[in-house]
């Protein structure tokens, strides 16, 4: 039976990790893997997480099963950060814990499909797993351009997608720190997007995987909140794997917004059933640690200070790149106005290979770079290599 299966291509980024690991050059630079790195190149566990984990070890008295909705203390503690002071928007939001943001995206799309959604509009390029999940569910993906060649968001393209959508269609938007482009909509863009969604009735799904890594915890959800204020229904997929550094512990949440209590309960019961049929219940440890942080004002401060340090460091790297301006055929100026962990450089696959072979610089074939892979110690080498490899 198994010989009927087609071979699947391996994850390109995992292949890149292996190549980078095998490279013996001491000044090699890894801009591939999507994790935050300090200026020393490490990805340490947050101090706030270490303290919360110690508390868990000391105080947790059972590891007995929770339900498919996971740790509701975690789910609720996160809500004011996402939705604001009126954290349930007047009782219109219900949420559950998921295995990472990936689990939340999967649940959002599966539930949308169960409710009759057939087509999903999405700006491209996007996080590759979005398309994989869409394909796996056999939903129809309708792409539109996310960014313009000048490195800013293509507002006209997203508005045209929304205005042209028929019934039973959804749109997947990145809440902030767009992966891979780093190009976010402005607050004014979001206002126009929210108005257009409200007019046409397209179903919004907002994926927020980098909350707090752009401009700040409040600033990064202005767009999300402005859309939610205008629409009757929406899904929100949320990841704590970047903003709490929990990657492998798989910490995420899925929220449903609805304008009717009965509809909300029905939708939640379906999400619950889908979760049960998929992973039964999410892993507890990471979410429990995040709950302990968010329920303790001192730990919350420690976490927010760490998040601010990450943000400031990435801003500094972006400023240095932007200051370098045009290098060879690449204008780095737009990177200064982009957000989060990633940006895409206009380099060809051949140039990416040359950067790897000649300079030990590892990045995705698409030209996506992890901003946090650059440090004050290697950024000049990187800029010089771009100038050399892309010189006409
Ligand atoms: N959405 C986007 C846009 C992402 O970039 C990622 C992570 N790379 C996720 C969702 C999923 O995050 P997690 O690791 O929590 O599953």
From TrEMBL:
GO terms for cellular component: cytosol. Residues 27-386 form the Aminotransferase class I/classII large domain. One of its GO terms (biological process) is L-phenylalanine biosynthetic process from chorismate via phenylpyruvate. InterPro entries: Aminotransferase_I/II_large, Asp_trans, PyrdxlP-dep_Trfase, PyrdxlP-dep_Trfase_major, PyrdxlP-dep_Trfase_small. Keywords: Aminotransferase, Coiled coil, Pyridoxal phosphate, Transferase. Its cofactor is pyridoxal 5'-phosphate. GO terms for molecular function: identical protein binding; L-aspartate:2-oxoglutarate aminotransferase activity; L-tyrosine-2-oxoglutarate transaminase activity; pyridoxal phosphate binding. CDD domains: AAT_like. Pfam families: Aminotran_1_2. PANTHER family: ASPARTATE AMINOTRANSFERASE, ASPARTATE AMINOTRANSFERASE, MITOCHONDRIAL. This is Aspartate/tyrosine/aromatic aminotransferase.
